[in-house]
């Protein structure tokens, strides 16, 4: 009876995790179009680094409001990986790719490889063991977007494509480590502490770039920068990391296969980018992969306390007990 009760409790947690992951994807789907807006008046390095510097402000306020204690010693290396991946790696490399001529829609399809990369790292780092069908769906999505890049590049990868592949690998590392840490503390604290960890670099570099790059703060550039700083770099991770922790890193990451299609829609609406048949077919193809991946079971290595690897005891504790764990 105890095992049945445990399974009953875990099912809603996993479903809620997928919903949270989907909310995070919705926020992230506007990142590339917003970055294009910001590039109309700002240096790409200022956007890539400065967005995290600005996001540090609400992070400090949020942690101070709950009087959060410092993470444990063993959690700092993971937070360093999060900072390297999603605070420096993805923002800077993806912004440079857009500045080098990649369209928002093109970049969206390339970054569609991200769920497959995250799933692989989840196996290596997160203790998850996806099924064969899961791998087939993820691999198919990866092949589709790689083929799309080769077609667009007349048989070879462009400089912008290489930057985009580098950005998605950085993001995959940050997502995997952040999802793992979100089993031990609330997801919003993971990104908050990572931002504070990166602040000694982000803040002075941002101030120097503001003084030397002659930024043009038009309405569109300010709106784009504000979005990537407050939503893409901070608030979106509240839902995303909690979703990864609850539903499992490998499974929840596949929700992001829908992100290319969403970004393409935003690119057409907000940037008036022409979406041709090749781009649309590639985006639809990866969207089909998410449905297949979601149907595939993910077997996990048992975690501490006998719970499945994608759910730590933290996820099934009452809120007051969660706080006692995360504040220790």
Architecture overview:
The protein has one domain. The two termini are 32 Å apart. It is globular, with a radius of gyration of 19 Å. With 328 residues, the chain is mainly α. It has 15 helices and two strands. It has a two-stranded antiparallel ribbon with strand order 1-2.
Features of the shown structure:
328 residues, mainly alpha, two-stranded antiparallel ribbon, 15 helices, 2 strands, disordered N terminus
Report helical residue fraction. Answer: over 70%
Contiguous helical run count: 15
Q: Let me know the number of strands.
A: 2
**Number of self-contained structural domains:** 1
In which order are the strands of the major sheet placed? 1-2
Mean pLDDT: 80
Low-confidence stretches: 1-10, 301-328
What pattern of helices and strands is seen along the backbone? HHHHHHEHHHHHHHEHH
Can you lay out the helices and strands and say which pair or pack?
Layout: H1 2-28, H2 31-39, H3 44-65, H4 76-99, H5 104-110, H6 114-126, E1 128-130, H7 132-152, H8 159-181, H9 187-212, H10 219-247, H11 249-253, H12 259-270, H13 277-295, E2 298-300, H14 313-316, H15 319-326
Antiparallel strand pairs: 1-2
Helix pairs in contact: 1-10, 2-4, 2-10, 3-4, 3-9, 3-10, 4-8, 4-9, 5-12, 6-7, 6-8, 7-13, 8-10, 9-10, 12-13
What's this, in brief?
The protein is mainly alpha-helical.
